[in-house]
């Protein structure tokens, strides 16, 4: 069970910087511009139902999910050499012990990494002796043809709230730029446009049913549709999708269906 603190470090910065990726040196150009999802940590697969990621920005910042907390910090690259400046900044959530042990091991790996190699869609971090510490696979950030179930959304009152029990909020991104789904009572349709990590959603239109159960379902519907249309950036990490507003606030948190 996660216990959430209000402090979030580096997430807004990473979203804004992600849209500014440009060409750099060959080694750095290969490592940047992608979301890397951990495949092996010290030779072992990640703990079940956890996702560890790394995204390298060309201004020398790296960040992602460490399995429980989000992290960020500076890194330097010279040819195939890499160094992660210590300590890394992270949020302060508490998760189950195996997840926290994995997170500690992951930060230790980042501290010990001295070189990297990119081959196709695989990134490997090595120690000073050339031993592989962590391997990642690049994840496509294309929304085309993906379907998602909403976990939480911004209610427009400076709060992120969970979906009402007994209702389902979904988002289906078509390959033709059309967005559709369930808004809890009605279904909705509209358009979306993507430019790098930037996204524009709407206008959205919905059917006109009126539901009374569960209580608050119609308020949830209007808040959810407004949250979708407030999205200005997105990030896909494993089976999770985050939509964020122009100022970096969470618009919606979704899980792949």
**Structural class of the secondary elements?**
alpha+beta
**How many helical elements?**
4
Radius of gyration: 19 Å
Helix content: 10-25%
Main pleated-sheet profile: 9 strands, antiparallel
Strand content: 35-45%
- Please indicate the count of domains: 2
In one word, what is the shape?
A: elongated
- CATH domain fold name of the largest domain: Lipocalin
Q: What is the name of the CATH architecture of the largest domain?
A: Beta Barrel
> What is the succession of H and E elements?
HHEEEEEEHEEEEEEEEEHEEE
Give the overall average pLDDT. 89
> Would you count the extended β strands for me?
18
Q: Alpha-carbon distance between the termini?
A: 22 Å
Kindly describe this structure.
- By secondary structure, the chain is an alpha+beta fold.
- The chain has two domains: 11-139, Lipocalin, CATH 2.40.128; 146-256, Lipocalin.
- The protein has four helices and 18 strands.
- It has helices at 11-18, 26-31, 97-112, 217-229, and strands at 35-41, 53-57, 61-65, 70-78, 81-84, 89-90, 115-119, 122-126, 132-139, 146-154, 160-162, 170-173, 178-182, 187-195, 198-206, 233-237, 240-244, 250-256.
- The strands form two sheets. Strands 1, 2, 3, 4, 5, 6, 7, 8 and 9 form a nine-stranded antiparallel sheet that branches. Strands 10, 11, 12, 13, 14, 15, 16, 17 and 18 form a nine-stranded antiparallel sheet that branches.
- The protein is elongated, with a radius of gyration of 19 Å.
- The model is unreliable at 1-29 (pLDDT under 50).
